[in-house]
Structure formats: structure tokens, C-alpha cells
User: Fold this.
Amino acid sequence: MKATFFKTTISLIAVIALAISAVGQGKQPWEDPKYGKDSAERVECAKNISLYSEFYKQQNFKDAVKPWREVYRHCPQASKNTFIKGATIYKNLIALEKNDANKDKLIDTLLMVYDKRIEVFGDRGPVLSYKGADLYGYKGDASAELVYPMLKEAMQLEGQESKAAVVTIYMQTAVALYKTSKIEGAEVIEAYTFSMETLDKATLFNKNIVSSGSRDADKATKELENIVTSVSNVEALFSESGAATCDALIAIFEVKCAENNGNIDWLKKVTKLLNKSDCTEAPLFARASEKLYSLEPSAEAAHNLARLFLKTQQYPKADNYYDEATRLEQDPITKALYLYEWSTLAMAMENYPKVRELSLEALKLNPADGRPYIMIGKAYAATKGIGEQPIEKNSVFWLAVDNFIKAKQVDTALVEQANELIATYSQYFPKNEDWFMQVGTKEGDSYTVGGWINITTKVRF
Assistant:
């Protein structure tokens, strides 16, 4: 008797509450078809919504699930909240379930809730994202064959609003399928490209939200942090997948080269991928890089070309592009790096005065990098024909060692290399008796090494 009275009271309260809520919309629950096909069903639906909502508020998900199921079965169109809260209910039940078989059934039901939500309310893109992410969270790579196409479609639909976490999972599933021979390497490359393009769009989208100062700015700021993490994860997954071979990349991009010859975004994508996969000796990389530079000159593009032509021993071209890279680069540390690399080119061309000139410029910009001192020392050691007396030609080794010593003093990372060079070139110091007989100075005296070098050092044997 008391139980019947309690249920009746709850029903009346639910109906009254929903009726009040519906007044502003012009319809009472028993008049609204979304609550059921007749007034009796609509009252029952209202009662069950009220029941599961109360249990939900109390986080009593075990008791919430029964009235929730009634709403799901008989009046799913009543509210989108049925599916939002339903997903939360089932995820909590899954977390509590210890039996694997029962847990699998609950997971299947959760996926069914997502499918039904799409059927009733649409929102296919975001709902597929939730579904795919949850399925992968529960099943891992074992679910890759289902999750991969699911998230691909979700990202296509959501575009710039795609979430960073979803992009990472999409790439994880692509790599998992490749490693089990379910997809080819070419598809992994396409998945990587699609992932990075999606993250680029999402970055711009969220930056615009932040700059607008809207109430979603905090969320967008957090998502930008997530995107940075996702970019790192996606790149690592791709690099370690084994799919990014030079042959595979070239086979994909070569056929598209002619039609995209003026497409800056495409050229950037190709050069970045080829560079990342160490395919810079491919003719395609040279063509794409030079075309990109002609369309959009930049320090980075010039540097890529300089390194390419240095590696392939096309020295005049490399020299030209190092000149361009250092001219366009604004960051002093990066510019110092370019100057150092350029000095290695000058060394290969046996232009020793230029080696010193470039190295000294690099040291002005980044005095903590000892490598330019190494290059100067090597340039001195390679110089021939210094001095009037035969013995004086060996004076260059004093200056070489001077610079190797400076290198390890400013850059501890070079200590081992510098010590090896010092030991090697110290063997070629002039002999005491020969030096005194031909030049006349003694150990510790100052001595100016002539020629283009024209630097004073100390006599030592």
C-alpha cells in the first residue's frame, strides 16, 4: 500500500514538473508526441525520465539504468540527454563490472547507445568520435579494424572541430592495422597526412576562439595544448611505423607532382615528409624544394636546399642557398647553425679563408657552440705553403691546436673530439732544433703565422 502510494506520488511529481517545464514551450508532456504515441505512454515516459534523472544526480547508476532503459526503448526522442546521460551510466557500469563477459555486453550496449543517438538526433561526426574513442579505450589495438574507419569519418565530418585525442587514436589504429598487414604503407602515409592537416585546421580554429575572447576561450586554450601533444604523438607513431620508406613516399607523390607543381601547401607537405624520412637525395625532393622556394622564399626552404645540394656535392648550388638561408633567417641561434654548416661547405670547396670568415660570424651569434672553432682549426691545418722557410709550413698546426683548445673550453660536448684532434695535430709541430736553425725564435716566443692567416701564436715544440 505504502509502496503504491510512493510510486503514484513520484509519478504525479514527475508529470507536474515536466508540465511546468513544458509550459514555456507551449506543450504539456501528455500533449507532446516525442514523449510517446498516446497520453498514457507520455505520462509513463515523464515518470521514467524523472526517476532515472534523480538516481543519476546521486550517481546511483545501478538504479538509474532500469528507468533509463524504459525511456530509451519507448520514447528515445524525448531528449538528447537520454543518450548523453545514458553513455555516462554505461561507462560507470563498465568500470564497476568484474566479469569480462558481462563487461563486453555492457560495452556493446554503450556502442548501441551511440548508434541510436545518431539515428534519433544526428550529430554523426562528434558521436562517432565518442564511440570510436571509447571502443579503443576498452579494446585497444584489437578494435583497430572497427575504430579506424569510424574515426576517419568522424574527422572528415568534424573537420577543424576534431579533437586532438581523436586524431591520435586514429593514427594509432592506422599503424596497428599496418603492422598486422590489414592496410598498405601508402594508406598509413595518407593517414599521417590527413592527421596533420586536421591538426593544422584545429589549431587555427582554436586560436581564433582564444583571440575572440569568447566564453569557450579557456577550453580552446586547453585544446591547443592537447594539439601540441597530438602532433608530437602522430609524428612519433608515423616515424616508428616502418611505413614511411622512401620508395613508398616517392611512389605516392611522384604521380601527383605535375598537377600540384604550383600548390604551396602540397609542396610543403611533400618536402616535410621526404625530409623527415631521410629521402632528401631523391630527385623529387630537389624539384619540390626548389619549386617551393621559388613560390615562397624562406630561410627554412633555402636551408633545406642548401643541405640537399651539399649532400649531393652540388657545391655552387649549396653555396647559393646557404647565402639565402642566412640572409633570410632572423633567429640568431638558427642563423649561427646555418653559418656553421656553410663553413663545412667552404671546407669541402677548400676555401679556407671563407671557412674562418663564416665560423667567426657564427661565433658572434652563438659563442657557446664550439664547432666553429673546430672548423677554423681544420682550415688552418689544411693550409699549405705558409712562411719563407720549409719548417714554417708546420706553424699552422700551432694555430689549429689553439682553436681546438678553445672549442672544448666553450663547449664541453666537444671535449673528446677536441682532445683527439689536439693529439693528432700536435705530432706535426715543428722540431725545436730545426725551428731554431731556420727561424731563430725559441719556445714561448710570439710568432705570426703569415699568408692569408696572419695570426700571432706562441712557439712550442
User: Anything to note?
Assistant: Residues 370-461 form one domain. Residues 1-16, 18-26 have pLDDT under 50 and may be disordered. The first strand starts at residue 446 and ends at 449. The CA atoms of residues 201 and 431 lie 68 Å apart.
